[in-house]
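Budget justification note: compute hours in this period were largely spent on complex prediction jobs such as the one shown. Inputs:
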Amino acid sequence: QVQLQESGPGLVKPSQTLSLTCTVSGGSISSGSYYWSWIRQPAGKGLEWIGRIYTSGSTNYNPSLKSRVTISVDTSKNQFSLKLSSVTAADTAVYYCAREKGARTDYWGQGTLVTVSS
Amino acid sequence: QSALTQPASVSGSPGQSITISCTGTSSDVGSYNLVSWYQQHPGKAPKLMIYEGSKRPSGVSNRFSGSKSGNTASLTISGLQAEDEADYYCCSYAGSSTFYVFGTGTKVTVL
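Corresponding output:
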């Protein structure tokens, strides 16, 4: 059973870079034709797709965030990461990491709240 | 790319059937048979309920079904149960520039 767990600072100052890591257990991040994704949800609001990375390392990003987002993978640690630069209060949200295959996201982490505040 | 449009809320009595709509455009829902639906209980991560428009993952009750007509996808919950009370989100592939767009979300209330 695949499990995903987000980790990282819960508080980030405005204009700084948000950094989160997702650790995958129960399977190798390199095996299978999977995308590894980040999705966020502001409190009381809907879901927003941030981007994804394929096992080969290729990435796709939400056009509205593309200039500020970097997703990377560390296969040796079975982890993938999110960096979001120049954050503002609008980036305050619960951030989920997830596994996607064929346009279906079947495994999700529990989510981690990141607050942007000075 | 705008979010897909869902009704803010839908309600029904136990045992009834309800349908949640998800309206997009010819650039997303209308162009691809790649709509998925997610159930989210308060404080929990979303759970995949339907993918590729009408397919159910293993373990998901057959009370959940999906369909699509034109630019609108739909999720039907039959035999409504108390445990179905949750938020539901649709999501569609929207091409190789936008990739994915989620719906605005629908709160389902079991009366």
